[in-house]
Design goal:
Distance between the termini: 64 Å
Radius of gyration: 24 Å
Number of strands: 2
Shape: elongated
Structural class: mainly alpha
Number of domains: 2
Order of helices and strands: HEEHHH
Number of helices: 4
Strand order of the largest sheet: 1-2
Helix content: 55-70%
Low-confidence stretches: none
Largest sheet: 2 strands, antiparallel
Length: 105
């Protein structure tokens, strides 16, 4: 084993078959209280997807974080337009173009 591979393994990665590196992030256990119905529904989804409830909860946490980041970006954009509004001529031109290119349905 090379010194590089040994160092990477200490950092939380290992070399899988075929020479590919597999990384595992350090995790901490967190106590979360859920009602029985929610636990059962998570178990059903986990079984159907061939994964664990923990993996589903991690995926859900990432989705909440992504949604919060998008909301923050939207708020920044709205604030930027509040500080420096678009020119009225540009807004009218865009509205006319949208009216002509909008599908009739």
């Amino acid at each position: 084993m090379s010194a590089y591979v040994a160092g990477v393994e200490r950092a939380g990665a290992s070399q899988a078959a075929g020479g590919h590196m597999v990384y595992q992030m350090a995790r901490r256990q967190v106590l979360v209280q859920l009602d029985d119905d929610l636990i059962e529904r998570l178990a059903q989804i986990a079984a159907a997807e061939g994964t664990s409830r923990s993996a589903l909860l991690r995926r859900g946490a990432r989705a909440v974080i992504a949604a919060a980041e998008l909301a923050a970006a939207d708020a920044e954009l709205i604030e930027a337009y509040r500080r420096v509004p678009q020119e009225e001529a540009l807004v009218r031109s865009a509205a006319r173009l949208a009216a002509r290119s909008t599908p009739p349905w």
